[in-house]
Amino acid sequence: MLSCAFFGHRDYQYGGYRDKLEKTIKYLIDKGVTEFYSGNRGAFDRLCAHTVWNLKEEYPQIKNILVLSYLPEKFKLSEWYDDAVYLLDKRVPPKYAISHTNRKLAQTVNYIIVGVEHKFGGAWSVYQYAKNITILLLT
Q1: Which segments of 1-139 does DSSP mark as H helices, in order?
Q2: Which of 18-22, 24-28, 102-106 has the largest mean confidence?
């Protein structure tokens, strides 16, 4: 089973990349990708999750999976997602939860789609970390 994760800056305006993102996701679906992972932590994650959710009507075989960086006590899965996962083997201090989750996710998937506009922050860091994965840059 092939999979893809999304990494992008939390507060960047990605609206202009909507069409390119959809074409990129369709390209990956045509290559056999069926699982798409996002963290729902910022603008890029929400754009990606919403795009996958919209494509499910055309491609019912795909799954939209929410990646949790923290284990919540109470949790209600949004209608956009088919499932949620916590990837870490153990709890880590909240300060490191997102970066550890991002690295684990990058190790887990076959492809990543990255939306980065500047060379700092968590999205840039995981992009640098994941050099051995097929990376598709949106920006």
Answers
A1: 18-30, 43-55, 94-108, 122-129
A2: 24-28
